[in-house]
C-alpha cells in the first residue's frame, strides 16, 4: 500500500500553542501548551503572542521527536492563518514560512474553523461530503452546509456572543476558573436541570442563528441576586444553564437539518466537548435519522492535529500549497473557495 503523506500542523490563533504530526488518519504525535491568563482575567493578545513565540520552536521540535521524525520527513505543513488574534497568528505563520522554506516543504494556510469542522473526517473516514457542521467554540457559533473542502454555505451564526463565550463569562461571574465550559459541566453534576427558570435563547425564532448574550445577562443577574444561595444551588444553576443552552442548540440544529435535508452532521469546537450537549444533540440527530460525528473531547478544543489534518484534506483535494499569504484575523468561512484558493494571498 502507498505510504500516506505526513503533515505537520501548527496552531497559534488564540491561547493554545499546539503542534501535531498526522499521517493519513493517524495522529503520530501532538502537543498542546495551554496558556494561563488568569492573572489578567482573560487573554491579552500581546501576552498570548509572546508566549507563542517563546514556546513554538521548542514545542515543534519535541513533537517531531515524539513522532521520531525530522523536518525532512514531512510531506507538508499546515498553519492557522485565521481567524484569530493577529499577533499570535503572525507568530505561527512566520515560523511556518521559515520552516517550510528551510526544509523545502509545501505550506498550506489553514482556516481555523474549517479545521475544526474537518477533523471529524479523521475520526470517521466514512464521513463523506456533504454534511451539516455545528461549530461551537469560544469565539464562534455557526451552522454550515459543508459541500466539500473549501466550500461552505453558512446557514446561520450568532447575533452576539458565542456559546463558549457565554459559558466563560457566566463561570467568571460565579467565581469559577477559565475556561468556564468545563467548570460549568463539572458543577452541573447532580443538579436539577429544570430547577431554575432561565430564558431559552431565540425560542420563537425559526432560523439557524444563535444568540447567547441575553442568556448570559439573565445568568449574571440571577447570580447577583442569589449570591448567598449560590453555594447550595450551584449544581442546579449549572445544570439549568446547560439545559436551556442545549434546548436552543437542539432547536437550531433541527432547523438546519430540516432546511438542508442533510443526513450527516459534525459537531465541533470546544463546547462540543461537553457530555450533556453531546447527548442532547445526539438525540436531535437520531430523531432526524441523521448520523452524528463528534471528535473525542480533547480534539474538540484547539489542537494541532486538526490543522495538520486540514492540510492533508487540502492536499488530497488537489488544492495547491502557497507560501505567499498573509494572516487573516477576520476570515468568514464562506470566503473560502477554490477560486480564491485560500482567500488570503
Ligand atoms: P475553542 O475556542 O474551540 O478552543 O473552545 C474553547 C471554548 O470551549 C471555551 O469557551 C470553553 O469554555 C469551551 N469548552 C471547553 N470544554 C468544554 C466543556 N466540557 N463544556 C462546555 N464548554 C467547553
Ligand atoms: Mg477554536
Structure description:
The chain has a five-stranded mixed beta sheet, sandwiched between helices. A five-stranded mixed beta sheet has the order 8-7-6-9-10, with helices on both faces. Helix 8 (about 275-285) links the parallel strand 9 and strand 10 (about 290-295). The protein is an alpha/beta fold and about 350 residues long. The chain has helices at about 45-65, 85-105, 110-125, 165-175, 180-185, 215-225, 230-260, 275-285, 305-315; strands spanning about 5-10, 15-25, 25-35, 75-80, 105-110, 130-135, 140-150, 150-155, 265-270, 290-295. Helix 4 packs across helix 5, helix 4 (about 165-175) runs parallel beside helix 6 (about 215-225) and helix 7 runs parallel beside helix 8. About 50% of the residues are buried. The longest helix has about 30 residues, at about 230-260. Bound molecules: adenosine monophosphate (AMP) and magnesium ion. Magnesium ion binds next to helix 3.
Topology:
Layout: E1 6-11, E2 16-23, E3 26-34, H1 45-66, E4 76-82, H2 86-103, E5 107-111, H3 112-123, E6 131-136, E7 141-148, E8 151-157, H4 163-173, H5 180-187, H6 213-225, H7 230-260, E9 264-268, H8 275-287, E10 291-293, H9 304-316
Parallel strand pairs: 1-4, 4-5, 6-9, 9-10
Antiparallel strand pairs: 1-2, 2-3, 6-7, 7-8
The structure holds adenosine monophosphate and magnesium ion.
Amino acid at each position: 500500500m502507498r505510504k500516506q503523506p505526513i503533515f505537520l500542523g501548527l496552531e497559534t490563533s488564540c491561547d493554545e500553542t499546539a503542534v501535531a504530526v498526522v499521517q493519513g488518519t493517524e495522529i503520530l504525535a501532538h502537543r498542546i501548551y495551554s496558556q494561563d491568563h488568569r492573572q489578567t482575567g482573560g487573554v491579552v493578545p500581546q501576552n498570548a503572542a509572546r508566549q507563542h513565540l517563546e514556546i513554538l520552536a521548542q514545542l515543534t521540535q519535541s513533537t517531531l521527536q515524539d513522532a521520531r521524525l525530522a523536518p525532512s520527513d514531512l510531506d507538508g505543513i499546515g498553519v492557522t492563518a485565521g481567524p484569530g488574534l493577529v499577533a499570535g497568528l503572525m507568530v505561527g505563520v512566520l515560523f511556518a514560512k521559515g520552516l517550510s522554506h528551510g526544509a523545502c516543504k509545501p505550506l498550506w494556510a489553514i482556516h481555523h474553523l474549517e479545521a475544526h469542522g474537518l477533523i471529524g473526517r479523521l475520526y470517521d473516514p466514512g464521513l463523506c461530503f456533504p454534511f451539516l457542521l455545528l461549530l461551537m467554540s469560544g469565539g464562534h457559533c455557526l451552522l454550515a452546509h459543508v459541500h466539500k473542502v473549501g466550500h461552505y454555505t453558512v446557514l446561520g451564526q450568532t447575533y452576539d456572543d458565542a456559546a463558549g463565550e457565554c459559558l466563560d463569562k457566566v463561570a467568571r461571574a460565579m467565581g469559577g476558573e477559565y475556561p468556564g465550559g468545563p467548570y460549568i459541566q463539572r458543577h452541573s453534576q447532580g443538579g436539577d436541570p429544570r430547577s431554575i427558570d432561565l430564558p431559552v435563547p431565540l425560542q420563537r425564532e425559526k432560523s439557524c442563528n444563535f444568540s447567547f448574550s441575553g442568556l448570559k445577562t439573565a445568568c449574571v443577574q440571577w447570580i447577583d441576586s442569589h449570591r448567598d444561595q449560590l453555594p447550595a444551588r450551584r449544581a442546579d444553576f449549572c445544570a439549568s444553564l446547560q439545559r436551556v443552552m442545549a434546548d436552543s442548540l437542539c432547536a437550531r440544529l433541527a432547523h438546519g437539518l430540516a432546511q438542508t435535508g442533510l443526513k450527516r452532521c459534525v459537531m465541533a469546537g470546544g463546547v462540543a466537548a461537553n457530555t450533556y450537549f453531546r447527548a442532547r444533540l445526539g438525540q436531535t440527530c437520531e430523531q432526524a435519522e441523521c448520523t452524528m460525528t463528534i471528535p473525542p473531547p480533547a480534539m474538540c478544543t484547539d489542537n494541532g492535529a486538526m490543522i495538520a489534518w486540514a492540510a492533508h484534506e487540502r492536499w488530497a483535494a488537489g488544492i495547491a500549497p502557497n507560501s505567499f499569504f498573509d494572516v487573516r484575523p477576520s476570515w468568514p468561512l464562506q470566503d473560502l473557495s477554490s477560486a480564491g484558493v485560500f482567500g488570503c494571498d
